[in-house]
Design brief:
Layout: E1 4-7, H1 12-25, E2 30-34, H2 41-46, E3 49-51, H3 57-66, E4 71-74, H4 80-83, H5 87-108, E5 111-113, E6 116-117, E7 128-130, H6 141-160, E8 164-165, E9 167-169, E10 171-173, H7 186-197, E11 199-202, E12 210-214, H8 215-226, E13 239-240, E14 244-246, H9 248-256, E15 263-266, H10 270-278, E16 282-283, H11 286-292, H12 300-317
Parallel strand pairs: 1-2, 1-4, 2-3, 4-5, 5-8, 6-9, 7-16, 9-13, 10-12, 11-15
Antiparallel strand pairs: 12-14
The structure holds nicotinamide-adenine-dinucleotide (NAD) and serine.
Length: about 325
């Protein structure tokens, strides 16, 4: 990685990857693209930024040529809960966006990271220790686009030798940029409500388990996978990765250790609950650990401590 382009760069994950990569490779060498510019102003000021749709082939090619891009981190996407509001739009962005970027990666010989998700699994997938290679019959439009995206990455690697790499991210927990409309967003919202109101109305049932990952571990995973020896990678679509599996009841109990008055109540969102019920409880990420040294640092206890610390500082300075 020398000259890197990030699409969807102002989103929850993109903003954190942009910061980390600019710290390593310099501001000028990490070029950001998004369809909005109303958030994360510092990132826009600090280095190259373009408003562009990832489906706009000509504009993205111009940017790739101008900055001599060799690596694309393609993050522009519509997430699971938002996808259910307008499935054709989710398909358009997630699939036509990815195929545009894959074609550009092929033409300009770029390496490409693009994430899949726990959303690529469905109710017929084994729920516990979900294997790397297993049944993938998701029921959400988001999941359908993620499975198709995994297959496209395999196809471009096998047919054109494009250096595609990816992971199946679990729910990402972070505090810099708000989440973009996922089923796992509750695990972020709960911290703001706990600190502001000492009460959270949770849209997911108390005992629904999902995999989660703290943002610094997610960013490190992207960097490690992109720097991994290609000969060691057996999968070119997406590696299972996780760091913790918990339910709303468990995260609430962990928060109560710091804020004893905190209470959680439940008002179930049927769309999010249906999606959550179809996802695994806990992935098996042993292939990522063995093949490229994936090794997350944060468990539930450490993550809750850090989130409360960081968000309380932000709220008190706001
Ligand atoms: P996000 O919604 O926070 O950010 C997506 C960004 O893409 C936004 O800034 C949005 O403005 C931009 N965007 C949307 N359409 C675009 C287009 N047509 N052209 C250019 N930019 C566009 O999402 P995120 O959480 O940062 O997710 C990034 C990637 O990681 C996605 O592929 C997502 O599926 C995947 N992922 C995220 C999570 C998670 O928990 N956040 C979990 C699994 C996988
Ligand atoms: N966190 C994401 C979502 O809920 C998982 O891909 O959509």
């Amino acid at each position: 990685m020398k000259n890197i382009l990030i699409t969807g760069a102002l989103g929850q994950l993109g903003s954190e990857i942009a910061l980390a990569l600019r710290a390593i490779y310099s501001n000028q060498n990490v070029v950001l693209v998004d369809i909005r510019n109303d958030i994360n102003k510092q990132l826009i000021i600090d280095g190259p930024f373009y408003i562009s749709d990832c489906r706009d082939r000509e504009k993205i090619i111009q940017i790739v040529k101008k900055h001599n891009i060799d690596t694309i981190i393609h993050l522009a996407a519509i997430l699971s809960a938002r996808g259910e509001m307008d499935p054709p739009h989710a398909w358009d962005i997630n699939i036509n966006g990815l195929t545009t970027i894959l074609e550009i990666a092929k033409e300009f010989n770029c390496s490409l990271f693009t994430p899949s998700s726990i959303g690529a699994f469905g109710s017929s997938t084994p729920k516990d220790n979900t294997p790397q290679v297993t049944i993938q019959r998701p029921s959400s439009i988001y999941g359908i686009t993620k499975v198709a995206g995994e297959l496209l990455c395999d196809y471009y690697y096998n047919k054109y030798n494009v250096d595609t790499r990816g992971v199946r991210f679990p729910g990402l927990i972070s505090y810099l940029t708000p989440p973009g409309g996922g089923t796992t967003d509750y695990a972020i919202e709960i911290f703001y409500e706990a600190l502001r109101n000492k009460r959270y109305v949770c849209p997911i049932q108390a005992d629904t388990y999902m995999d989660m990952l703290y943002i610094s571990d997610a960013v490190q995973a992207v960097i490690d996978l992109m720097n991994a020896d290609p000969n060691k990678l057996k999968h070119r679509n997406a590696y299972n990765i996780t760091a913790m599996s918990f339910s709303p009841r468990m995260i609430a109990n962990e928060i109560k250790k710091h804020i004893p008055e905190f209470e959680i109540v439940y008002e179930i969102d049927p769309v999010k609950q249906r999606i959550a019920d179809s996802w695994p409880n806990k992935l098996d990420d042993s292939e990522a650990r063995e093949q490229w040294g994936y090794n997350p640092v944060y468990d539930l206890e450490k993550m809750v401590y850090d989130m409360l610390d960081k968000i309380s500082r932000r709220l008190c300075c706001a």
